[in-house]
Request: fold
Amino acid sequence: MGANILDKRVYIDNAGTTPMAPEVVAEMTDKMSNVFGNASTTNYYGRIAKQVLEDSRHVMAKSINAAYDDEIVITSGGTESDNTAIKQTALARASEGRHIITTRFEHEAILRPLEDLERQGYEVTYLDVDENGQIDLAELKRALRPDTILVSIMTVNNEVGSHLPIHEIGEIVAPTNAWFHTDAVQAYGTVPIDVQKDKIDLLSVSGHKLNGPKMIGFLYRRRGINFPSFVRGGDQELKRRAGTENVPAAAGFAKAIDLHLADLEKQAARYLDLKKHLVDGLEANGIDFAVNGRLNEGMAPQVISIWFKGVPNDALLTNLDLDGIVGAAGSACTSGSLDPSHVLVAMYGQDSPRVWETLRFSFGIYNTIEDVDCLLAALIKYVPRLKDNGDRGQR
Reply:
């Protein structure tokens, strides 16, 4: 990718966002030029827009094996979908219970709404995660109570790439009173998702993580899950989400879904090859490092989190950026914070050097072996130079 896109930089931060695929841009351009109607009106132009919207919804529903197209509520993205699932479940089920279960290393779009609910008197149980980024299913079973109304556990962690046992979690939650929600933003388009098989009640995804447009996503809401609209106004989305529908973005998102789901297994194998090439190169050149979590087992294929021992992540990230290599120290949503990654703290503890010495690299459909070679060359140059030099940046 770095050879011909994004001003010749090597972009390996696809967990943060992805460049829109040319096919997506073409699809959206066509719809912006030719489908201007309001999909909620019944006139000629509105009917054309409505058909495009519903065709796109069908693609979204099919991609996760939803039983019905109308189980898909189109939103502005993962954050809105997460907030809707969390807050509206709490609002709708307050009389049944006020207990919610999640994990300590969820995305902020889960943790912050839960903090709001705690201030309103709800009780939240935060499950621990181990050094591989996995929960103890026995702990989940112990945490479930008659007044538990929601279990929200992410499918793939956005910082370290650990793939949680969603099927097993669904089996545990299904017989209880709780609804099961999963933030699948980092998983969607890279690992198979089947909401029926995994007994998922609510699921959040976002378009910009799979080379689609920003500011669009969806919330899967199983039939029978009822709560009021989070965004109040008109009666769009069958009265489940107000606001004039963004038809071009929906069409672009559907195109991106088609591109990614055409051959998930082949794409996953390619990502694993890129990760292995990176790790093999670091080992061959004597770089002192460790992978956070595991390399393959229980991990999503596209994300790798690496502890460069004794090397401040801020200094290394800056030097890589100056060499045209774009990675990340953690989640894009918290990258401006001076606090350590809450994900790494949850896995390794506040005092672990990993929380200050880790970088995340995440691959996308345009990355190549040549990109990894460029990354390796930069790491081989900078890691020994920065190792144990005492420069800890702003801490």
Summary: The chain has a mean pLDDT of 94. Residues 22-261 form a domain with the Aspartate Aminotransferase; domain 2 fold (CATH 3.40.640.10). DSSP finds twelve helices and twelve strands in the chain. The chain has two domains: 10-20+264-386, 22-261.
